[in-house]
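Bench notes, bay 3.
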Amino acid sequence: MSQLKTDIGNLLGKIRASTPLVHQITNYVTVNDCANMTLAIGASPVMADSIHEVMDMVSIASSLVINTGTLNEVTVVSMLVAAKQANAKGIPLVLDPVGAGATPYRTETVHQLLQQASFSVIRGNLSEIRVLAGLDEQTRGVDAATVFNAGSDRPAMQAFAKNMARKLNATIAITGAVDVVSDGVRVCFIENGRPEMSRVTGTGCMCTALVGAFLSVTDDSFLAAVAAVAGMGIAGEIAHENLQKPEGNASYRNRIIDAVYHLTAEQITEKGRLQE
């Protein structure tokens, strides 16, 4: 496990040394936070979503992140075109199926993306990933309706994550009270994070932005996903430690971004709670 933490620290150094361009077609609720999170980790964000430029922008990017948080008929077309271009150019692709299962339109859009493009990493909460699995799951907005017990249900979660990764031919990152990442062979449970992170809109979206940044400097999608999820959780813990009264969730959001900006390989080694 110490080697995994070392590898994550090395990726962090690569991002900051190369400043990769991370193209994101994301939602307007969290677009600013995702851009700032991308900058904080050391990458460069571009949030272009016009059909007139997505193909050109994807072609010069190091990774593409697609987030389905706020959909309309214009951006859905851009997502599909950009995803196909990323595949054609060999550019790693990340999907955040926000709210999959909440409405038929949202669920159909996610399935269209999965049918028409190949993704390196898919990050979502358990409810969203269950919808991708074809299970009967009603997602409440963008919140996870399903909660699993990190102790007694861990073997079931391990099997589910591995099966989903194989089914979708992608690394699956399921985030929640305890996070699990699998590429169909390897599995890692991550116990970093704070419950207060759920009181900040967009922490999941920001985590996905980090996946895009890490994926831009490695071919190992499993390592990139573990790095992003662990890094986000560690940042949430550090930010919570630094909160001062009477600060609330708005200050917490800013402190999470600050914690990622100052994140070090040493902090990952010291604070990372990973079980592979």
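Next record in the batch:
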Amino acid sequence: MPEGDTVWQAARRLHEALAGRTLTRSDFRVPKYATVDLTGRGVLATLARGKHLFTRFEGGLSLHSHLRMEGAWKVFGTGERWRGGAAYQIRVILGTADRAAVGYRLPVLELLRTTEEENVVGHLGPDLLGPDWDPAHALANVLADPARQLGEALLDQRNLAGIGNVYKSELCFLLGVTPWLPAGALPADRADKLPVLAKKLLEANRDRPVRRTTGLPGQDLFVYSRAPRPCLRCGTSIRVADQGDGSQDRPTYWCPTCQTGPAPAPGSPQRWRDRYPRRTA
């Protein structure tokens, strides 16, 4: 599932391509909306809310989409070859006189009244890149279940909206604790840093083509997807293990030296197995 900065970038691309223009093409390729035609409607805006996208049209309609793992929005100019997947993967096309926004493999696509958007995202916590950001509220949400593993609490969009698996691993590294640490055991000084650091990372990366968290030349990330390469701080081999409830485990990366707290129970050798070829730093 994409991180909040990726969704924010998608919203910006769609907004810049469509907002203030009139649709000259409307092509829904999902059975539920096969007869819907938005041609002639003006596009008002596209905005992100957490990991959700809303494109608003004249007449009080909004198109809600969610990328999840495989979805993507691509924008093409007149005469430009479409590159985003096979034709059968296209779920919707929104075209203007000089642009085409093409939605590929979108698992969530629905038309609703703009006044009903809150019904879709009202359960979300404060948005790290949104106008509703409230660091105190976000931290209180994360700490509300003290026994819950911190990594799981960070991924819960009801606590704060925008963190995905990459930022979960990177934030825990920067805070110096493992993702398996109970949220209530997070030291107070690090807990205070958590919402500030999370927002700083997403804001810094929302305008970048390549996500970076390290500030080190040639090194984009501290731990995510780096197992079993050496830690950039201490040289210890980065480890990877699944974290989740079994139904939606996610590969989680950490440094066993730089990060204190519980590690995953080594009940299954596969959870501790290095999954990637050994490479140098």
